[in-house]
Amino acid sequence: MSELTDLYQEVILDHNKSPRNWGKMENPNKAVEGFNPLCGDHLHVYVKLADDVIQDIKFEGAGCAISKASASIMTTLMKGKTKAEAELLFEKFHDLVPADLD
Amino acid sequence: MSSATVHHEETVPDLQEVFVPEILKSEPTFNVEAIRADFPILHQQVRGKPLVYLDNAATSQKPRAVLDALTKYYETENSNIHRGVHFLSEEATRHYEASRVTAQRLLNARHSHEIIFTRGTTEGINLVAATYGRKNIGEGDEIIISGMEHHSNIVPWQMLCEEKGAVLRVIPVNDRGELILEEYEKLLNGRTKFVSVMHVSNVLGTINPIAQIIKLAHARGVAVLIDGAQSSPHLQVDVQQLDCDFYTVSGHKIYGPTGIGVLYGKEEYLNAMPPYQGGGDMISSVTFEKTIYNALPFKYEAGTPNIAGSIGLGTALDYVNALGLKNIAAHEDKLLAHATEAVAEIDGLRIIGTASEKAGALSFVLEGAHPHDIGTILDSEGIAIRTGHHCAQPLMKRFGIPATARASFAFYNTTAEIDAFVRALHKVSEVFR
What we know:
A: 4 helices; B: 16 helices
């Protein structure tokens, strides 16, 4: 089970079971939908942006534990960040995950 | 196929006289271990565990006889078929056409020229939509499919409807995953021009009552295509008895190579339909003013076909025939029943597809675990299953789920493999408890 516990770490399982910022947002000023036909992930992300600051962020949908947990963790990191800070995080994340997987 | 595969009772003759009932003498016994010896791919470790291959509805593994037939063709016979005056071409043509006769026997078609080689089931359906469909379906006409169809039996008809201004009607599916025949009867009307339904569902495993579906359509003079991708590896099919108009078979799902399949069509339809693709082999004479098309089946086989693939498919069908589809079905039914019973004990597991007549596939969802996670964890145990929408997104929507996990069985699977699969599912439950 060792490779399995590497993949399904406690933090992943926790966010999968109790995703933070889960649900639909009324009146977001940004909303996006992401769909991955390969594995059936289907997520909606809603953002309330005011004065260039992410006041609130929520998500909902269906996906595997990794996809759900990473969306959940993303929302906890993004909440309260300025747009510039969020973009920097986005770039760092993209450097972290191997881009040549595409 | 090795002679070890099918075991006739070969005990000492005089003992046989005494102990073996008459009926058993002609019936081969089903020896799974001997069969497995014919499949080289099954004998390997995956992620440090013995491979358990339960993704047979996606594609089946190939016996050594098929691999040998492909090698032998390329090593000793490779040449282009038809019209060749040299030895190799004659040999290749003879084997290619022999495979057609083997496929004819599989489906019990009246004529071998009613068997068209295609790339697979998808091409078979597209061929009928593009020829019979384009010729006979017009504005306001209706085509009936079912709510459990694979995308390959939805999209070609949708494209035709878009082109012609025709309407797609869908037979609904009940909660057990069965077609609601009363609703089908209501859908049939004067505008109905074609019915296209799968024989066995790749997701639910449901065996659809195609004899009845065909009969009801024929009562209104409507032609029917049956998508046999999932049924042909499991069930004996008799297109004459069914009075089926078109029937498709996928080679790689019935232990043959990929890129080869069979479309059966009734002679009268195949003669009346326009050709599918133009090119070599499908003509009898060409001038710039007029081309005269070739006779059946060549009219529908433009260009150099998949010669090796069809020879491989013929070999695969010989292998299946030697085992006997009746014996295959009995073994697979036992596996499916065993798996169905064992997974029922897993907390939060729900089987999708509980029809009274099923073959080959077990789909399920597990509370708290996305199918993709189930597949990943099973893979770490060396167990191959399929997860996702199985190219049946409307059916997923019908059951209100994004995806399922699906184990699907072949004659080389064992009860021990099912047990390993169920043990791994218990591990999934532990991780996502």
